[in-house]
Design a protein that fits this description.
Blueprint (H helix, E strand, L loop, with lengths): L1 E10 L2 E11 L4 E5 L6 H8 L7 E6 L2 E2 L4 H6 L1 E4 L11 H11 L4 H15 L14 H13 L5 E5 L7 H14 L4 E6 L2 H7 L2 E6 L2 E7 H5 L3 E6 L3 H5 L7 E10 L2 E8 L5 H14 L4 E6 L4 H9 L4 H7 L1
Parallel strand pairs: 3-8, 3-9, 6-7, 7-8
Antiparallel strand pairs: 1-2, 1-4, 4-5, 9-10, 11-13, 11-14, 12-13
The structure holds adenosine-5'-triphosphate (ATP).
The site of adenosine-5'-triphosphate has 13 residues, from strand 2 and helix 1.
């Protein structure tokens, strides 16, 4: 659906986006996660055609953005970081104008306006100037213009930024609803946002893509934490077992040591755990603890920002 290939963007000599590649399939909701200044907005601006890349290629449904910008822009909706730029216009006039810009006409325009207004629940604000709207309503107006014309790709830059918890929930529900007919990429620096609505996460660190992973895969741990009194060398030798990738000594605990056991991708954690337990018991050693390691986005985010290598993270996930 969306393909981004070796994208780079500099501002003067500063590299804001550094050789970023990813592709997104139809129907996915993908979260672009990163600290302030990581490059999220720059990537979204490039994908939506508002900013030129220095190098790299963006295609939407096989159409090249650089060669056919108008065609690509017709198939996407964009909620920019800073909201509607016509504060003096009423919501109705602004949406009418946005529909014209998207080339909507006649009955299609009318029905699309009705749909976007209903989906974002802004009927009661239609005759109000945008300047007087609360942050939450401005955000809804921004989303309403983004979904006009049923875009195949929706690009949302920090869609819940500044919203209160109730508005945030409303916006998340709306995004999930819209995603039934569209592919969505949204940027955020809030991990819970990604956990709540995304099926996949792209983590950026200083302009580079540090992690690209499905949330399901992240949740399914391929590491076991083991505490045992068994001789250290016997535990480390488990790395030679077929289903185990590596064993690392973490630290010593009372009466033994703690290890992280990394499993092969094809290994079944429960079966390997049972085998380890049986082995330790057969050696007459104590098994103090053996459990899957919990890895959540927060842990990974910290690791990314502490400079973990992309390979290491993918492996860890
Ligand atoms: N027009 C510009 N001129 C110079 N530097 C810029 C410009 N726009 C962005 N930058 C810099 O590029 C880097 C990436 O900015 P970008 O807005 O893409 O990050 P971001 O991840 O969206 O950040 P935030 O979460 O704060 O919105 C930042 O260091 C920013 O200061």
């Amino acid at each position: 659906m969306l393909s981004v290939h070796q994208l780079s963007r500099t501002y003067g000599s500063f590299v804001a986006v550094d050789n970023v590649s990813f592709s997104i399939n139809k129907g996915e909701i993908v979260g672009l996660l990163g600290h302030n200044g990581a490059g999220k907005t720059s990537i979204m601006k490039v994908i939506s055609g508002y900013l030129e890349a220095d190098t790299g290629r963006v295609t939407v449904d096989g159409v090249d953005l650089q060669n056919s910008p108008k065609l690509v822009q017709k198939s996407l909706g964009y909620l920019p970081e800073s909201l509607p730029v016509y504060p003096e216009m009423t919501v109705a006039d602004y949406l009418d104008y946005a529909a014209d810009l998207k080339g909507l006409k006649g009955e299609e325009k009318a029905s699309e306006l009705r749909r976007a207004i209903k989906a974002t629940d802004i009927t009661e604000k239609l005759l109000v100037p945008i300047a007087t709207l609360s942050r939450g309503y401005k955000q809804r107006v921004g989303v309403a213009q983004a979904i006009l014309g049923r875009p195949k790709l929706l690009i949302l830059d920090e869609p819940t930024n500044g919203l209160d918890p109730e508005q945030t929930q409303h916006m998340r529900d709306l995004i999930c609803e819209v995603a039934k007919d569209a592919t969505v990429i949204l940027s955020t620096h809030i991990m819970q946002e990604v956990e709540a609505i995304c099926s996949r996460v792209l983590m950026l660190n200083a302009g580079s893509l540090a992690l690209d992973a499905k949330l399901d895969e992240l949740r399914a741990s391929h590491h076991l934490l083991l505490q045992t009194s068994l001789n250290k060398n016997d535990v480390l030798a488990m790395a030679d077992w077929g289903e185990i990738d590596s064993v690392k000594l973490l630290h010593t605990v009372e009466g033994g040591s703690e290890f992280r056991v990394a499993l092969d991708n094809s290994a079944k954690p429960k079966l390997v755990a049972a085998r380890i337990a049986a082995f330790i018991v057969a050696q007459n050693a104590e098994l103090y603890a053996l459990q899957p390691e919990q890895r959540n986005l927060e842990t990974l985010f910290k690791e990314v920002n502490q400079g973990y290598k992309k390979e290491g993270l993918n492996h860890a996930a």
